[in-house]
Amino acid sequence: MNIDELKNTWNEDDSFEETPEISIEHKNKINLPLEKMRKNMRMELWSTVAIFIFSFALIALCEAPFKFKFYVAILIASMVFVTFFFFSKFFTLYKEMSNPVLNTYDGLNELLHQFNLNKQYYLSFYVAFAPFLVCELVIVLEFIPRPVPLTEIQIATTLISALVIGLFTLSVVGTWWFKRFYGRHIDQVEALILQLKK
């Protein structure tokens, strides 16, 4: 086989063709839920930043012993660090949603995979606040003055029950928040991809 025959064979082989692009109509249908998700992500980022700024301002302005303010400030700074880690993962997804590769069916399938991965990150984000909840409870129990000090049993009962209730609340709120702001849009994208498959 000479070089010309090899070129012709290469050009006739369609196995290397790209995945067919998605029609403009389907792109528009898919872009609507994606843009809503991007908007919710921006809102969540800026509201989280505002909450942390408010928390640091509140600590700076409150009348409390130095140790109490210092411990709470360290705790909030640690929460900022954990939040930054998870938000860096969400930002990767945020950029991915405007990727031109989404013009192909394979690109959309990859995006669905990213959604499922980020759902796990999102729920992990809420669970990651369990140690902070414990620390907050310890600080409150140690620094809030009481006329009668708590017994060891009362301290243990308060810590354990508050932790169980707090973890349950975090998981319920995290699941609800994800479904409300992201889950329904992910379901729309998934339904549109299933339509494309037919």
TrEMBL record:
GO terms for molecular function: transferase activity. Keywords: Membrane, Transferase, Transmembrane, Transmembrane helix. The keyword Transferase applies. It comes from the Bacteria. The chain crosses the membrane at residues 45-62, 68-87, 121-141, 153-178. This is Phosphoglycerol transferase MdoB-like AlkP superfamily enzyme. It comes from Chryseobacterium defluvii.
